[in-house]
Automatic annotation (TrEMBL), chain A:
Domain (Phosphoribulokinase/uridine kinase): residue spans on this chain: 120-308
Organism name: Photinus pyralis
InterPro entries with a match to the protein in the record: P-loop_NTPase (IPR027417), PRK/URK (IPR006083), PRTase-like (IPR029057), PRTase_dom (IPR000836), Uridine_kinase-like (IPR000764)
Reaction(s) catalysed by this chain's protein: uridine + ATP = UMP + ADP + H(+); cytidine + ATP = CMP + ADP + H(+)
Domain Phosphoribosyltransferase: 348-552
Enzyme class: transferase
Protein name as catalogued: Uridine kinase
Entry keyword Nucleus: yes
GO CC terms: cytoplasm; nucleus
Pfam family, one: UPRTase
TrEMBL record, chain B:
Phosphoribosyltransferase domain: residues covered: 27-205
Record protein name field: Uracil phosphoribosyltransferase homolog
Protease is among the record's keywords: no
Localisation per UniProt entry: Cytoplasm; Nucleus
Assigned keywords, A-Z: Cytoplasm, GTP-binding, Nucleotide-binding, Nucleus
Similarity remark: Belongs to the UPRTase family.
GO molecular function, one term: GTP binding
CDD domains, alphabetized: PRTases_typeI
Keyword Nucleus appears in the UniProt entry: yes
Length: 557, 221
């Protein structure tokens, strides 16, 4: 895939996380899930699971130690050819000297389900000053996932025919503020700051237009925004939590530029010098250098400056810690003994349902029976869930010659989203009752050291915002995983009132937590148990549903 | 089932009119949609079978609720006690050929190894008199609870003949539960007058029965 890349490139490089399924061109990016494009149809898009998205060492390209990116999902789009030089393994990113484990994303919202804003670092500096390598070093040193890199290069204006010709003759000024589309840039960064999914344009430096594809960015705890004029617009400046100016000597910048443009991009010396003296250098003096006053930190010598990077990383860690909190523990101990919220829909407790619960709760039930009776119960829960949808009156003709006053579902836009792993057990039932339903998946796992849920992976139908979403998890204890999944859906612009969280068994505290944070989300379950124990299992409960269903429970000593 | 639900009022009225042995599946919009699709003459056969199977599953699940059970306690994997209940063994299904067989799979999906008997009742083309021509039951059916499956009842004659055969084999009238999808008030009255102790579970009481069910389900229309 790397061969398809267009090589012409403006002053700085762009790279950033994510992809969308239809993004065929551009460079591949490392990604932890090893699947290959099973949904290229365009019906699905993917969002980064853990977007460590920065080329670790984009310039110079690191040779060797590289697997074919073809075997991997195409991830980032970047116009920088050297960004393709990356390796991928199942769950780790290997860079030159270190391995970054792509852990899940811890909660990014508070108890009330509201967003905690991500931390935004702005990096400004002249062309070829080393902004990208500073960003890459910061990401490597942060040693945490869910870091997104947004580059100003994605936001160049679309050029008309005349400008395009100028650009071809090295006469278009890419370093002038007018070359950037600040409106879209501000909107994009604002949405990212709100934790929402954004579609970042892909700028094609050959046609000087935006590609029809975009790259999807979602889910950052830290956003690094870099560009030559990153501090130019006051609105942008306001959004930045930390401002870094990379101050590299003009001679070095020119030297790097010459080297890059001539040896890597095959351009001639005269053209490069002309562009530099006519546009790059004056733009730096007029627009970029004065921005230094806004900086919190000025980093001389760019990415080589270990001390400066270390200081930056320390500050970010401290800031993130101030914002972090333990969600699950707080959830487990709230709202004891209050009446159930009215968004809760508890299946009528018939003898059959109690009988089914008896089978699946019994620790001595063999697995084949456990699966069989779980499936029966799941089917009932899903049938009940469908009955909560909106219906409209409809009169139909019958073969008997009389009309029948019936009802049909008001919408056909229903999709299922399962919370892996236990929620997956409910997918079959949804498919059995609703023909051709689209199924999305969200993988949330508990971090054993913190006990907090972490987001690892997600894949949702592309236009999910138009859908009623049946969100499935087999059990809900504290509600922490369910809340994370709901938050993900909301970030993808699903209406809160269009979400139904469906589960076999919930703990009372989980029900209250969800209803408190998301009062419009409908909650469907077949039983509500009173307690959650100190391991966050529901009491009396079912035990670990996923383990029992899939047969992965630890052997008993 | 949640008796305060306003949707169930009609069910209660029916129960008062016909006695407590008639049970109607708690109606909700979803069930209504299934019934609408099954009654719609424009429904394709593949849809018809798909939605018929869904409605059958719901009716079977509800029929199973009528079976006797006892309380029991079990220990959950977390070490806590759950107060559950246990169904008695010794149930069986009996389907009335042909359309009753459409419901067998639904029963199998709920009770994997249940015994299923069959009755073939044929109507005389001239006299419309129902006659049993074949019956095959589990051996000790007299000691069992019997789930009699027949989806459409318009006159009730076929079911009446089938119940007679069951009684001849020693099945007690109050041990028979009829699982039915669509039924006319006339049929309910006929059957209940003849067999007052038998339980009837249906999803809808409506003066017009969708008699095309068997043909469309099996594709012989």
């Amino acid at each position: 895939m790397a061969a398809k890349i267009t090589t012409f490139e403006p002053p700085s490089s762009a790279s950033s996380d994510s992809d969308c399924a239809e993004t065929q061109a551009d460079v591949s990016e490392v990604f932890p899930d090893g699947e290959l494009d099973e949904e290229r149809s365009g019906d699905y898009y993917t969002t980064p699971a853990s977007p460590i998205t920065v080329p670790y060492c984009p310039r110079p390209p690191s040779a060797g130690s590289q697997k074919s990116p073809k075997a991997r999902r195409q991830r980032t789009t970047s116009i920088n050819k050297s960004a393709a030089k990356k390796t991928a393994t199942e769950s780790v990113l290997r860079t030159q000297h270190r391995t970054i484990y792509t852990a899940g994303r811890p909660p990014w919202y508070n108890l009330a389900g509201q967003q905690v804003e991500p931390f935004i670092i702005g990096i400004c500096g002249g062309s070829a000053s080393g902004k990208t390598s500073v960003a890459a070093k910061i990401i490597a040193d942060l040693d945490m996932p869910w870091v997104t890199l947004l580059s100003m290069d994605s936001f160049y204006k679309v050029l008309n025919e005349k400008q395009h010709q100028l650009a071809h003759n090295n006469e278009y000024n890419f370093d002038h503020p007018d070359a950037f589309d600040f409106d879209i840039l501000i909107e994009t960064l604002q949405r990212l700051k709100e934790g929402r999914k954004v579609e970042v344009p892909i700028y094609n430096f050959v046609t000087h237009a935006r590609d029809t594809q975009t790259k999807t960015m979602y889910g950052a705890n830290v956003i690094i925004f870099e560009g030559i004029l990153a501090f130019y617009n006051p609105k942008l400046l306001n959004m930045l939590d930390m401002k870094v100016f990379v101050d590299t000597d003009a001679d070095i910048r020119l030297a790097r530029r010459l080297k890059r443009d001539i040896s890597e991009r095959g351009r001639d010396l005269d053209g490069v010098i002309k562009q530099y003296t006519k546009m790059v250098q004056p733009a730096f003096n007029h627009y970029i250098a004065p921005l230094m006053v806004h900086a919190d930190i000025i980093v001389p010598r760019g990415g080589e400056n270990e001390v400066a990077i270390h200081l930056i990383v320390q500050h970010v860690h401290a800031q993130l810690q101030l914002r972090g909190f333990k969600l699950r523990e707080e959830l487990a101990h709230s709202y004891v003994g209050q009446p159930l919220p009215d968004t809760v829909h508890l299946l009528p407790t018939t003898p059959q349902i109690r009988g089914l619960h008896t089978f699946i709760r019994n620790k001595d039930t063999p697995r084949d029976e456990f699966i069989f009776y779980s499936k029966r119960l799941i089917r009932l829960v899903i049938e009940y869930t469908l009955s909560l949808m909106a219906f409209v009156e409809k009169v139909v003709e019958t073969p008997q010659g009389v009309c029948y006053n019936g009802k049909r579902m008001a919408t056909n836009k229903i999709c299922g989203v399962s919370i892996l792993r236990a929620g997956e057990t409910m997918e079959q039932a949804v498919c059995d009752v609703y023909k051709d339903i689209r199924i999305g998946k969200i993988l949330i796992q508990t971090n054993f050291s913190t006990g907090e849920p972490e987001l690892f992976y997600l894949r949702l139908p592309k236009d999910i915002k138009d859908y009623k979403v049946i969100l499935m998890d087999a059990t809900v204890a504290t509600g922490a995983a369910a809340m994370m999944a709901i938050r993900v859906l909301l970030d993808h612009d699903v209406l809160e009132s269009n979400i139904l969280i469906v589960s076999l068994l919930m703990a009372e505290s989980g029900v209250h937590s969800i209803a408190y944070a998301f009062p419009k989300v409908q909650i469907v379950t077949s039983a509500i148990d009173p307690e959650v124990n100190d391991k966050f299992y529901v009491m009396p409960g079912i035990g670990n549903f996923g383990d029992r269903y899939f047969g992965t429970e630890p052997s008993e000593e | 089932m949640g008796s305060s639900d306003p949707e169930l009022l009609s069910t209660h009225e029916n129960c008062i009119e016909y006695g407590t042995n008639l049970k109607i599946l708690a109606s909700n919009d979803q069930v209504k949609e299934l019934q609408t699709i099954l009654r719609d003459r424009n429904t394709s056969r593949s849809d018809f079978k798909f939605y018929a199977d869904r409605l059958i599953r719901l009716v079977i699940e509800e029929s199973l609720n009528q079976l006797p059970f006892t309380d029991c306690k079990v220990i959950t994997p977390t070490g806590a006690t759950y107060n559950g209940l246990k169904y008695q063994s010794g149930n069986c299904g009996v389907s009335i050929v042909r359309s009753g067989e459409a419901m067998e799979q639904g029963l199998r999906d709920c009770c994997r190894s249940i015994r299923i008997g069959k009755i073939l009742v044929e109507s005389d083309a001239d006299t419309h008199e129902a006659k049993v021509v074949y019956a095959r039951f589990p051996e000790n059916i007299a000691q069992r609870q019997v789930l009699l499956m027949y989806p459409i009842m318009s006159t009730g004659n076929t079911v009446a003949q089938a119940v007679n055969v069951l009684k001849e084999h020693g099945v007690k009238e109050d041990c028979i539960i009829l699982s039915n999808l669509f039924c006319t008030p006339l049929a309910v009255k006929t059957v209940m007058d003849s067999f007052p102790k038998m339980k009837i579970l249906t999803s809808e009481l409506h003066p017009v029965a969708p008699n095309h069910f068997g043909q469309k389900y099996f594709g012989t229309d």
